[in-house]
Design brief:
Elements: H1 2-19, E1 32-33, E2 41-43, E3 46-50, H2 63-76, H3 84-87, H4 91-104, E4 108-112, H5 115-128, E5 140-145, H6 150-158, E6 166-169, H7 174-184, E7 190-196, E8 198-199, E9 204-205, H8 208-218, E10 226-231, H9 246-250, E11 256-260, E12 270-274, H10 276-285, H11 287-290, H12 297-310, H13 313-335, E13 348-352, H14 356-368, E14 371-372, E15 374-376, E16 387-391, H15 398-410
Parallel strand pairs: 3-14, 5-6, 5-7, 7-10, 10-11
Antiparallel strand pairs: 1-2, 2-3, 4-12, 8-9, 11-12, 13-16, 15-16
Helix pairs in contact: 2-12, 4-12, 5-6, 7-8, 13-15
Amino acid sequence: MSQKNFLSVLKNEVNRIDKAKTSKRFEKIIDGFSNEKSPKAIINKKKFQVFNSNDYLGLRHNPALKKAEQKASDIFGTGPGAVRFISGSLKIHRDLEKALAKFHKRDDAMIFSSSFAANLAVLFCLIAGQNKDSLVDSNVIVISDALNHRSIIDGIRVANLPKEQRAIFNHMDPAHLETILETNKKIYKRALVVTDGVFSMLGEYQKLKEIRTVIDKFDNEYENGVLLVVDDAHGVGIAGKTGRGIEEIEGVKADVLIGTFGKAFGADGGYVVANKTIIDYLRESAATYIYSNSIPPGTAGAALKSIELLDSPTGKKLLADSKNNVTYFKKEMKKVGFQFAADSSHPIQPVLIGDPFKTSDLVKKLFKKNIIVTNISYPVVPKGRDEIRVQISAVHTKGDIDQLVKAFEEEIII
């Protein structure tokens, strides 16, 4: 059968990926977690230190979140039942959206099954409109940071714009963004600039204040203005004095802010906050909101509790512990001779190795020492910039970090 030929192509492609040492399908199966301040992953009855989680504040194991999750499940059930426009919105979902709007000082918010789904829908709708009858035309230039997350890249792709209407500005380079806006101001009615708030491979903070200044400068140069969309999945909940993310650090706001509950907030699902007009439009247009179930009620209950907790004394202490742990880890790693791929104050700490085979080998050796970390190699990062992305949690103890640094030192290969 001719299908066998295609299956052979797929098999050869998988083999190519495996030989390049960039395979991602061999996930560790975690049987559970230990019940302690810094929970350890249990794999085959052994405890492992977890240094590859986006749970920056350790909230996914927080008793208050678990209790809130159970309470919401008891009231609303284990799932939403159907999409919201068919079976109605559960109060827990709407309460969560109101809390998000207040947290980010916006008119309104809407939640999605994931932040990936949020990016796909938001970008498509703001670029191309919902369908051929939409009054939102595609006379737009879309400008994206060179190192934006895959969900942003795919969100732009699904809008299916001609190549000339898609531009990339050099990574964290507001001057290059300004050049692109200047070049296209007489060609398109509007522009959409999209960027990550925190870049997930290096823990870098976008120069949002400078980008906001450039956008404001050109807003009147385009008939329908310039819109700034920021995906701050790795920023909200952890970055900034009160965990408001890149906007708090840079002191400016995006026109549309996309976030997630699946990282610092310790739950799951994505969201977008903006002014009422934009949110109303997205509720009528975003396919992954209209035609896809929302997050389970229990998850919404946990997320709602995490927002409340972040502004409490407990949350403030977790933020302080996170910063102290990151500072300590960086200092200790430099003592034993390791370098970082970027100088980041974020919990994402990219330890530079520079070779995919050495990086993969080091991860395996650390695993034998009961430590879980993740290697990041090309094409996720440029060739020669292979790294081990260590992620520090607020609930890691000094002893946990010492154990990690000692393991790195014992297997040093640089």
